[in-house]
Amino acid sequence: MRDYHAKLAPDLDEAWLEAEREHLHQQVIGAMRALMSCHDEYEERKLATLDAIRALDPTNEALYREIIRTQARLGRHDAIDDTLDLLKRELDKLDERPSSEILQLARSLRSQQYER
């Protein structure tokens, strides 16, 4: 999957263009989410699509929850900590912290690794 990182009219710095850029950005994310739903039976592809969306929306905690759940279903419990660390780094840039919900989810899914 190719990642989308293009910026609409990058050489222009017009105020009205920001709304258009954001609209296009959201359309791309929406299209990628639609693609992801086609991969529900293919966890590897779903994870790759989630990661591509994360690159476009790096502080979306709901997205990280989906990534963590998918990693757990794939048996990649060790990757959960890496994903959580990535979220923490992205949120640090905004002087924010991960919610207790995602921290609890990560703990719960990691502990399932040892119950199997």
TrEMBL record:
Domain Bacterial transcriptional activator: 2-110
InterPro entries per record: BTAD, TPR-like_helical_dom_sf
Record-given protein name: Bacterial transcriptional activator domain-containing protein
Species assigned in the record: Haloechinothrix salitolerans
